[in-house]
Amino acid sequence: MQRSVRPNGRRVVAIAAICSLASFVLLLFDTPGQAQVPYNSADIKASATGTVLHAGALQSGSTRVLDGELAFSGAAFDSGGLQKALSNELQRQYAAADAKKLAAARASALEIGLGVTPTDPNQVIIAGEATASSPPVSKPVTKTVGPVPAGPLAWASLLTGTAAANGDTNLCALGEDLSNGTASAADAQLLDTGTSTPTGLQAPVLAVDAPAPDRAVSNSTSRTLFVSQRDSKGKLQGSDMGVLSEVRETIAPVTFFKGTPNQFTIEVLGEWVLQTVATGIDGGSYVQYGPENASPATPILRVIQASGTQTLTFQQVFGSAGQAITIPGVAEIVIGEAPRAIGGATGSKPTTSSNGTTTSAAVDVVRVRSLPGAPASIADVRLGHMEASATVPGGGVSCPVPITKTPTATSVPAGGGFTTAFTVTNPFKCTLIGVAVTDDVSTTGSATFSVGKTDPTATVSGSETSGSLSFPAFDLKPGEKKALSADFVAGSGSGDIVDTAKASASLKDCGAPGATVNGVDVSVTGASLDGSSAPVTVAVGSGGAGSSGTTGVEAAVATPLANNAAASAAPNSGELPRTGAEILRILAIAMFCLVIGFAAIAIRYSYRAS
User: How far is CA 193 from CA 64, 216, 265, 418, in A?
Assistant: First the structure.
C-alpha cells in the first residue's frame, strides 16, 4: 500500500518566512547607487588662476606701487551661471559676474596698480589683456602689444593675452577647454630706481628676463575642461565625465634689485603644474602639483648671487616641507611648500572630498620678502602663484549625443504612411566611434504600425504596438552629420504612434592638447555618451491626440538618457536611482517570494484544517 506523505507544515512556513523576509530586505536596503547627472541639470563648477609674478606693496623712494601682476591668467565655468565675480586669494579678479554666462576667461600679460584698493582694477597699465565669455561660443580673443615703455613703473618687449570660453547651455565642450586664459610676457621689468630709457629700465627692483630669448618669456595658462573618470594613476573608473582645473606656468629668471650690490636671481626651471580633479566617483578627488616630467635628481631651482649659486633638485625641494633661504640684509626666500587650502595658511590642507565631487588647492612655487637693509621694500612677492578648484555631482556628468528626428506628417489616416528622418551630429572636437542609433516605438489607443523601408537597413523587433529599430553602427568625425530614415505604415485602429530615438557612442582622437596628470592621459578619450531625442507623436485616424493639436510634433532636442522624474524628486542628493530595469528585477523577486510565502502559509493551514 502506497504511503502518503504530508508536508511538514512548520518547515514550509519557515521557508516561506525566510523568503518573504529576504525579499523585504532587498526592497529595504537596495538603495540607489551613484549615477551620472545629465549635463543640462548637473551642478558643475570649475576655476583656475595663475600669476607668474605677483608683487604687492612695492616701494622705492617716493614711488609706491601697491600691486603688480605679470602673466596673470584665469578661467572659470559654472553650470548655474557666473553669479558672482571670482578673485584669487591675492584679491585680484579673474572672472567677472554675469548670470547669463557659463564660462569666462581672462589673460592679462602685465598690470600695475598705483594706489589701488584690493577691489579696484589695476588701471595704471593693463596691457595685453584679453577676455572671453560664453554662451554664445565664439573664436578665441588674442591681444598683443609691445614694446611697452612705461618707465619708471614698467617695461616689456612683448605682451600677449589669449582667452577662450566654450561653455554651452545644452552641449558639453569635449576635446577642447571649457575655458582657457593664457598670458605671456617677454623681458618684463618693474619699478625703476634709476633712469628709465625707451629700451628698458636701468635699475629695476624686479626684472623678469634673461640673456637668451627662449628663457626670457614668462607664461601662465589657466584652463577648465571635462576629463574621463580616471584616477591619478590613469585607471578608468567610470564611463562618464569629471572635471579638471589646471594652471601651467613657465617662469623666466627673476632678478631682484638689478644693478645694485644686493642683486640676486631666482631661476625656476621647467614647467610647473597645479591640477585639481573631481570625477564624482568615490576616491576620485585629487590634487597634483610639481614640475612636469622631473625625476628626483632633476635640478628645478637655482638662487644666483654674487657669492655663488645654490642649486636645488626635485628631491631636495619636495622631500621635506620645502626650503627656506635667507640672504642676510636682503631677502627671505621660501621654496617648494606643499599645496594648501585656497586662502589658507601655510600647512593647511587642500580640499579633497571622499566621494570625489570636490577638490581645490593653492600654491606658490616661491615666496620672497625683503629684509631691512634692502634697497627697496617688497612686502609680498610670489613666483608661480596658482589656484584651482573643481566640483561635479556624485556619479559624474553624462554628456548627450545630439540626435534629432522629424516625421513628414503630424497625423495620418488609418492605413496611411509617413517617414521619420533622424540626424546625428558631432559638434565635438573628438571623433564619435561606434555610434549606435535605436528608435523605440509604441502606440496608444487601438493604433498599430508596421515598419517599411529603412536607410540604412535596420534590424526591426517587437510587435505592431511596441517595437524597436536598431541601425548599424557608424563613426562620425568632428563637424560631421549622419542622416537616417525609416518608413512607417499605420494600421486600421486609431490613436497615436509615439517614438523616441536614442544614440550612444565612445570618444576617440580628441583635438585639444592632451590632458595629462602626473604624465597620465586623463582626456575624454575612452568615455562614452548617450543621447535621446524628444518623443515624437503622430496621430492615427480620428482618435489620436495629435489630430486635435494637443501633441503634434515635439521639438527634437538632444537630451541625455536619464530618469528625469527621479532626478526632480531628489534634486539635492547628487544621486539618481538605478534604472527601472534594476528596480523591476528586485520587485519581481520580492513579489515572487511573497507569493510563495502566502501560498505556503495557505497550504499549511489547509492541512491543519484537514
Answer: 12, 21, 17, 82
